[in-house]
Design goal:
With 110 residues, the protein is an alpha+beta fold. The protein contains two helices and six strands; from the N terminus they run E-E-E-E-H-E-E-H.
């Protein structure tokens, strides 16, 4: 699927991972760069926490979870963020995130 997979840290039902956020993007999508790092493109600007809110909303909507299940642990004022997602099985969460990134990559290829 990918040359390099993202580094997911799983603790019971919690999944933590790093991603790079690109605010003010033309598209809202989760992709993966060539080094295997997840990259989230958002419409929201990086001012007053709007990109952070959009990041949480993106994952809550995509994974069908309450926004309270998505927490930015580190990087509130940086482009690189550490997220923790709870609310469903860790395996299911990882599979869904990988599927989201794969769908964006396939969409660009076709």
């Amino acid at each position: 699927m990918f040359s390099s997979m993202p580094d997911f840290k799983i603790e019971r039902e919690n999944v933590s991972f790093w991603l790079r956020v690109k605010p003010r993007s033309a598209h809202e999508r989760l992709t993966m760069d060539t080094s295997g790092e997840l990259r989230l493109e958002l419409h929201a600007p990086a001012t007053e926490g709007q990109a952070n809110d959009a990041c949480v909303h993106f994952f809550a909507r995509a994974l069908r979870l309450p926004q309270a299940c998505i927490v930015i642990l580190s990087g509130q004022k940086a482009r690189r963020k550490l997220l923790r997602i709870t609310g469903s099985s860790a395996e299911e969460t990882v599979t869904q995130i990988e599927g989201l990134a794969a769908a964006s990559i396939e969409g660009r290829i076709h």
